[in-house]
Sequence to fold (345 residues):
Amino acid sequence: MYFYSMKKSSLYKGCLEPILLRLLKDHGRMYGYQMTQMVKDITKGELNITEGALYPLLHKLEEQGIVETETEMNGNRMRKYYSLTKAGKKQTNIAMDEMKAFMQSLEYIVNPKIALG
Amino acid sequence: MITDEQYESLFAFCRRHYVQYYDVQVELADHLSAAIEERMNNNSKLSFEQALDGVYAGFGIKGFSDIVATREKMVYKQYRKQKWRLFFSYFTVPKVAMTICIYAVLLLLGKLFVQDYHRIVLISFIGFCLIIFEIIHSIKVSKVFKHQIKPMLYTGERLNFLISSSVFIQVILSNKFAKVFELNELNYFDYAIVSFIFLLMFVSIFAHRDFIKELYNSAIEKYPKAFA
Fold:
């Protein structure tokens, strides 16, 4: 079981960035924990984004100017929200197109009959 | 729902796990509190401490270290870009007008001192002014952040990139350097080159002043609790 889940997580590894971009595009602004839970819900528990992968990636995207942050007080608590910048919105469209092309290529490999038409 | 005391204890928990920066603690404490609350909602028998242990285990064997390390690297890169952007803004419209004016004044002063020997006195004086300007700027920066009560990665880089003019001027006016460039008697062309280097130093201080303004405004807006 452990081996299976390891293999699965490595399959998802390269897709984490487009997944986060898509989430931000659809929901405007989100905080870290919300993203992990939403991905879990959408994929019905199939994909678990670990904190160790999520935050370094979000910080990298912030440095690249793809996402921007704002903090908000919620009672005594402070929450940091991420949202796409203008450049980030363009980047999301590119990432989605690349993702679709990649999935199409995978489909051809997994199901050669489609490729042969 | 966890209590305010429990929420505050998460900051102490982060510090115990080598996260000393308040801005990183804020994000982690929020993540931990949201995850703990969900665990406690799903299992009412779970204590706060048990839920916290469970959530922290999810961060893997490295704990928070990877998050802090990446954050440090990214903040440094982000600020380096921002500082260069502000530096180059003095060479584009509209600020370039000010840069040209300063250089024109320096060149004009050089013209007023006809003798080559007097130019070396002048350039030494300008160098001295530059050092004083930098010292005043550094004191101002320290004053601006005086009421910051919590250490933040976000503002930790504030004194980097400021070209240390005293070191540069010492090198330029040192005997060895002066001999190579015959600075003991500074002709007008050499004067123009040295004053251009000084101009860059002036601009770097101006750009750094702009950076500090942007950094302070952003830090106050994003992390008001880090300031008294």
The first helix of chain A runs from residue 2 to 13. Helices of chain A lie at 2-13, 16-27, 32-42, 51-63, 86-110, 112-116.
